[in-house]
Amino acid sequence: MDIKGVNLGNWLVLEKWMSPALFEGTTAEDEYHLPRQLSKEVYEARIRVHRSEYISERDFLAIRRMGMNAVRIPVPYFIFGDRPPFIGCIKELDRAFDWAEKYNLKVLIDLHTAPLSQNGFDNGGLCGVCRWSQTPGEVEYVLQVLEKLSVRYGQRKGLLGMEPINEPITEPMWKRMDVPSRYPASDPEQAAGSAPNTLEFLRDFYTNAYNRIRPHMAEDCFVVFHDGFQMKAWKDFLTRPHFQNVMLDTHLYLMLAEQDGCPRTMDGYLAYIEEHYAQDIREVQEYVPVICGEWCLFNSYAVGVDTRGGQSVLNGMEFSGNKERFTPEQKKEIYRTLANALLSAWSVGSGYFYWSYKVLLDTCGDPNWIGWDSWDLGRCVDEGWVRG
Fold first, then answer.
1. Chain centroid to CA 281
2. Is 157 exposed, middle or buried (0-12, 13-18, 19+ CB in 10 A)?
3. Could you list the mean pLDDT of each consecutive 10-residue stretch along the chain, which spans 388 residues?
4. Cα separation of 18 and 34, whole Å?
5. How many whole angstroms separate alpha carbon 280 and alpha carbon 252?
6. Residue 63 is inside which H or E element, if any?
């Protein structure tokens, strides 16, 4: 299957920058602290309205009409509603499968968060904290969640596969992102001892997760492992006879290329995409199928200022004087050129999922968010930046 998909980000797992209004009236920067700063009634009302309105059946039809054949659905560790004060969302995932099967879309279930976090990112649900892998009880809890999900959906027609954990950070990316500084913890005591996951831990966890979920899944479904931001480290491990129908998920953003020294120019981006992204995927694809599970068109050149690797006003950046640098036609040419290059790179592997399907930002009325509309696939297709 040549996967052409999109992430349903910020639906069942919240990210403040993607929908700031959900966090109004609080100082919370992540999903963990949001219910701890709102009353139970207000929190539940916001979450239930958000989940019912953000994604609905008509979105699955729209995604199919874009030419997509799959969705990657980030889900939280509290999906079954057993970790108060959070509200479970298993019924929403049930409906998503019904919609996907109606419109002939496949679903990749992505466990996007873990207790005490696997990365310290805002998308891990708890900024500045990365202690999940150091807590055996919580590792076992995640394995139990994965097994319950595999029992519930393993034989569904719409299941593409399951991804045991999203973006478990390892040491190179921990240092590169300077996680404690970029995502400062609101509770230093809770963050004490935070450290990146080791490759040894991930290999062990992935083996255990595979053993727990594979017996419940149809043979043609995939177990998808994120590379921990080290794509080439998995070539030998995932070719072991023990693993059947596995994929490697890598997340490749231009903002990370910028952090790696890629010039913030069109020529710079195009050269980097071919010399790094395409070449690396081509090399690893010989051993195991590779998908780019997250990517988008966002880049500092189109924004008009150096975003320092995708940092926003929520990370302390200020773009209050920012103005559109290019005309609509110039932007279309920039984004189309980048999209063609990126899609060509992903075609060397087994497919992709865009991040994300939608973003609720005012990108024309707020100078802090100029250029951030490129995270929204719906807008990208409507503007002609990506051909659906």
1. 19
2. exposed
3. 95 97 96 98 98 98 98 98 98 98 98 98 97 98 98 98 98 96 96 98 98 98 98 94 96 96 97 98 97 98 90 82 90 97 98 97 88 96 91
4. 15
5. 11
6. helix 57-65
